[in-house]
C-alpha cells in the first residue's frame, strides 16, 4: 500500500474543499481499502467522511430519501424500504455477507469498482486502470464479463446489485461539489466504456454522493430481485434481474425491468417493459418479452451462456412477483 495523508472533516463543505485530484473519500472502506492494498488505487490523500451529515431514511409523499452514509444492513432492514420497495431490500441482502453489509455505505456501494480480475491485477494491462494499456479480457478468460454495452476497450461488468434495483425504480442521486448541488438520474450517472473506460461516471472532481432518492411508486410493493451466482454466499452476479409489475385482471399494466451481471453498467430494458405492457401475466408472455433483453448482446468466448441465463433470470424474477417460485 502506498503512503497517503489522512483527514476527517466534520462538514460536507470541508470535505469537498479538502479534495484534490488524487484524493479518495472513505466511508465503509469495503472496496477502497481492498483496492489500496492491491495498489489498484493509490490515492495521495484519504478523506474520512463518516462524520458528515449524510444519514437518515426518510419517507415522504414523493418517495423515500436515503442518506449516502447509511449502512446497507440498516437500509435493507428498514420497514418502509422493505415494504414499499422489496426489490431494494432483496438486492442489498444478496449483495454481500452480513459483516460487509454492516460496514458498507449506500453511496460507496453505488461507486464500487468492477470485479474484473484483470483490473485488480496490477501486473496485467487494463484500460480501466491504465488508459491505453489494453483489455486482455477480450481474448482471455471472460466468463464473468459483460455481454451488453461493451466496447473494444472494455468488457468489465458493473458490480453493484443495489444499482440495478435503483435503476429499475428510476432513482435519482443528489451530488454535492465545489460547484454546488445537483440531482442526476442514476441511469444517467454511469457511463458506457466506449474508448474511455477509466471514466466510469459523471462525478466531477471532489464531488460526493450525498443522498439517494427513490420516487413514489404505488405498485413498487410488487417487486423482486433475483440473483444467479456460482455460490449462494458472498458472490457477484453471473446474471441478476430487478423487476416491478403492475398487474390488473391478470394483464400487465406497467413493468420495470433492469438486469445486472451482464452489462458494463446497470442495464435498464425498456424494450422488455414495452413488450410486457398489455400482455397476460404468464410465464409464456414473460419469456417472449425477455428475448428482447439480448437483442444487442455481444457474447465472448466464455460467457455466451449468459445470453440464455439472463432471459431465464428475468422470467424467474417476474414469476416470483406473481407468487410463483
TrEMBL record:
GO molecular function, a single term: xanthine dehydrogenase activity
First-tier enzyme category under EC: oxidoreductase
Record flagged with keyword Ribosomal protein: no
Domain FAD-binding PCMH-type: 1-219
Domain of life: Bacteria
Keywords: Oxidoreductase
A Pfam family the protein falls into: FAD_binding_5
Enzyme Commission (EC) number: 1.17.1.4
Keyword Lyase: no
UniProt-recorded name of the protein: Xanthine dehydrogenase YagS FAD-binding subunit
Native organism: Kibdelosporangium banguiense
